[in-house]
Amino acid sequence: MDSPWLVTAALVFGVILGAGAFAIVLLAARRGQRAADVISISVPDGVDQVLDALESAGVVVDPSNNVVKASPGAMAFGLVWNGALVHPELTALVDRVRRNGDPITEELTIARGPFGDASIHLFVRVARLGARYVMLLAEDRTESHRLDEVRRDFVANVSHELKTPIGAISLLAEALVSASKEPEQVKRFAKRLSKESERLAGITQEIIELSRLQATDALAKAEIVDIDQVVASAVDQNHVAADARRITLASGGDRHAEVYGNQSLLIVALHNLISNAIQYSPDRSRVGIGVSDRDGVVEIAVTDQGVGIPEDELDRVFERFFRSDPARSRNTGGSGLGLAIVKHAIQNHGGDIRVWSQPGNGSTFTVRLPSAAASTQKARA
Ligand code: ADP
Fold first, then answer.
1. Tally of helices (H runs) and strands (E runs) in the chain
2. Which residue has a Cα nearest atom 12 of ligand 1?
3. Helices 338-348 and 183-215 sit at what angle, rounded to 10 degrees?
4. What pLDDT is attached to residue 36?
């Protein structure tokens, strides 16, 4: 090859090589810059402190949707995981704000954290923060939503529960009219009529009791309550039902225990526990009511040898209108409100109630209340 050609070829090759190397260096520099942007945690002045002080959830994301700052609340709600927003619903809101520029306010129901299927209800506001960032603020509305649901369920349940005996009463009344010439039939229908109306009266009474309980605070006008008297009255009220089934009611344990609260509420609570123990027990069995007063805690346990409660229903028996076996419970006249009333009454006294049960082996409901003696000693100390 001629030497001028050789020189030109070498020159061209050199230029191409140089340009390639330059392009590679430039690209690397750009990528480096982008990487630096992604991990940069510099957000506008003051935002850091505001997020740290924020009780609710607050998150700042950069243009690549990396979380550059999150309030403790956002971590607690499980909104952020591995430096990114967990929920695609929230990421979609952020993207929308970045595209349109306008702030968004929305209510969302999203999964609680990256695992499990519980959900939380959030009131979310998303807006731009300067030219680069987007800020997301979320307020937890789960509790108020739950309360709304409970109220709606309660109204629906009450109307459903009342509809059944009311329907039965109107059918029986019609049957009475058409059987007016047959005295035996009239007697039978009239008997069932009075049973259904008793049931209706019972449910109405329990609904009123439960609403009253929810509105009152047993400790607002608390008096010293003698637990011996509470047990004696509750046992007394159940004697007729127990005798009819030859069930023995045996009470015992520590005497003279005292708590602060409302005597009639505590009698209602214990009455319901004993009445359940009788209802769900076989004839000629035994129901025990034991009191213990130790270490500042008064414990009242009601034990039966009855049918028991399946394990998966143990948590639910305190819900309003919950009945383990609706058909069986309806035969015994139950409304499913008894234990909800007990739970409210006991919680109103600053106590709690627990249940142990095994199908076939009976159940024990244990109420725990703060002892009045311990409170007085504490006050004196
Ligand atoms: P109910 O009016 O149906 O008795 P409760 O609220 O008192 O309503 O009780 C709810 C459910 O819990 C009952 O339907 C019954 O299935 C179950 N249960 C309550 N107490 C007992 C018990 N001592 N033994 C077995 N099951 C019980």
1. 11, 14
2. 317
3. 20
4. 38
Helix (H, G, I), strand (E, B) or coil at 261: strand
89, 231, 329 from 359: Cα distances, Å: 45, 26, 16
35-88 pLDDT, tens per residue? 434 444 567 788 888 888 888 899 999 999 999 999 988 888 888 888 999 899
Calculate the average pLDDT of the chain: 84
Give dist(CA 364, CA 308) in Å, integer.
Answer: 9
Place of tokens 């680069």: 132
What whole-number distance in Å separates Cα of residue 80 and Cα of residue 82? 7
- Check whether 4 has a pLDDT greater than 80: no
In testing the pocket of ligand 1, which one of 210, 276, 343 has its CB within 8 Å of the most ligand atoms? 276
Q: How far is 129 from 136, CA to CA, in rounded Å? A: 10
**Which range is least confidently modeled, 3-17, 31-45, 163-177?**
31-45
> What are the distances in angstroms from CA 364 to CA 249, 258, 307, 322?
14, 22, 12, 18
C-alpha 102 – ligand 1 centre gap (Å): 55
Q: Which residues contact 22 (CB under 8 A, 6 or more apart)?
A: none
318 C-alpha to center of ligand 1: Å? 9
Question: How long a stretch of residues is the chain?
Answer: 381
Confidence of residue 123 (pLDDT cuts 50, 70, 90): very high
State how far the alpha carbon of 206 is from the alpha carbons of 156, 158, 331, 345, in Å.
Answer: 16, 11, 17, 13
Q: Name beta bridge partners: 38.
A: none
DSSP assignment letter at 337: -
Q: Whose CA is nearest to atom 25 of ligand 1?
A: 308
For a substitution probing ligand 1, which of 324, 330, 343, 361 has the most ligand atoms within 8 Å of its CB?
Answer: 324
Element (H, E) at 58: strand 57-61
Evaluate whether 283 touches 245 at the Cβ level (below 8 Å): yes
- Report the pLDDT averaged over residues 290-294: 97
Residue nearest (by alpha carbon) to ligand 1 atom 21: 276
